[in-house]
Amino acid sequence: MKCATISKTVDLLDGGCNVCGIIENENYTLVLDEQAVPLDELTVNELVTAIVLKEGFKRSYETDVIDDFTLYKKEAQIIRMKEEFDHLTYSNGTEQIETNDYIINKNSLIERVNVILSTIFGLEKINFTL
Question: What pTM did the predictor assign?
């Protein structure tokens, strides 16, 4: 089982005027195979995307009349991800997983990411350390 570390830093920024207060800016970093990958935020989509791109998948976008899709391709394997607000649908042709993108409980978030990685992408589960 691979190991990964997720670290968080918080920058305190001055709002810039007398009325504005101090703003907290959270930054996350995923360290996987001794390489650091910055994350915009800690969500299912951000984690899955960072990991599968690291594993050699290529990302592209597809549009049809009704929906937009993100495609992840590696050799003959094609995964389709449909995003609607906070709702994500991952499918690989035979299986489909629906989930919320924002999951507040970090352990539930990590568990959901591992289910998507193993079931949809066929990758081994990752032991995350927060």
Answer: 0.89
